[in-house]
């Protein structure tokens, strides 16, 4: 190709490119003129036909609830229904931005609608025709009950005055009943009714936005008149729960309730170092997808709403109090028979008959002797004992703040009678909740420092802001030596007690204590032969990482706290497996049960 020819080709290309630039620039100038410079003039011209200003709600989506690993336990979607007003369906006169008028026929609009909702124009037209055939005055015919947000907005953009929309909020719980008692549920309008859905609604709740615009007489949106206030989705509530561990615990406790023919059961797992609740499972439970399928009494959480006398589990707290006060050592001893009447007239008895034994503090815990603990307890004043009970959390709800959570009750010390003076040493004459007992053992396992229990890790707002729950500061309740020694005593309970074989976990040192609480009768006193049983385990005892507690309400196959032993063994085994805790490398130091 000659140089002259090449120059000519380049010149033609440049001219053509310049022409394109001029044309595009012309369109851009015209667009700016219509939508910016002379927008009001165009608006006035078209608004004169209608004067209609419309506002549509843009709906935000309720936030999700996840476990500690991000597994979704609750989520929401917003779908939309769309419906015709058949009596208003007609052709629409449309005025273009350049003032040219044209008619948008119902046939054209129905084709546009069909393309958005995945139907043919004929099918769309048939919806309206059938409605009018049934009732010539019909004002309602459903187009679709399941539109996505994008389909809703595309239909809205058509600006058809005979189409209206309704949001359909849908809340789903993918794991079904897993953590159902904790998650709670919402009503058909998306209003929270129970559990964390209600307690943390400020995190999960969405803020609706709006889309405002003006319409011409043809019902279509006038360009440049749209004003949008965006919707804000709810935040993500992240829990401390481990969904897999929670699932296992729920299956296990349901089986144990059936095995022991109990009314109800629960199991909690708390991380010692942080106070994080890794599982809080109970049976009966509720599936938040269908709460009406459960009895009303089963839709809340008994873990937080049930109070009981902790019984022998709080003998460990008496021991820790005495050790912290320097009043005893593990080998300090008292002489105690199975039934005794004290100088003040109070009568105390053990759960089994035995002659007078010279119990060490260790032995008193191993045999769970009420009489021996009563005698040990007298080594500190009532005021001191009451103060320690309060410091361990009795009478104060945990930081979890679950809806309906009870605080338990401790009688003011100046109102203690002769029996209360002794009963408080072995876990009676005051009430607690399951989380309070677990927190007390977390304190012992954590070297005497009580970490606030918590079920929520954080709330992450739609803009990414992370808000952590406000928790109490850690509190030193007893000295480290007293706490560690108490765990050592409880390890001897695990190895020398009557349930040693039933609670043992191969390869691991564990510390345990049972509790059998009498249940109050309606007219006063206690019910005969029925109990609220419990057992706690600290694993591993040589390096405490988790506290596990199991309760059974009125077991009938085995009525004592021995009913809870199989469940504790299963729960501790699963926790150690789940978190891959290394086996213990040392063996426990046996302590004498009786004075030598």
Automatic annotation (TrEMBL):
Cellular component GO terms held in the UniProt record: plasma membrane
Pfam families to which the protein is assigned, alphabetical: PBP_dimer, Transpeptidase
GO terms under biological process: cell wall organization
Penicillin-binding protein transpeptidase domain location: 265-572
Superkingdom: Bacteria
Residue intervals of the Penicillin-binding protein dimerisation domain: 59-189
Major subcellular location class: membrane
MF terms (GO), sorted A to Z: penicillin binding
Keyword annotations from UniProtKB, A to Z: Membrane
Cited InterPro entries: Beta-lactam/transpept, Beta-lactam/transpept-like, PBP_dimer, PBP_dimer_sf, PCN-bd_Tpept
Family matches, as Gene3D superfamilies: 3.30.450.330, DD-peptidase/beta-lactamase superfamily, Penicillin-binding protein 2a (Domain 2)
Xref: SUPFAM superfamilies: beta-lactamase/transpeptidase-like, Penicillin binding protein dimerisation domain
Subcellular location: Membrane
Recorded family membership: Belongs to the transpeptidase family.
Protein name, as recorded: Penicillin-binding protein 2
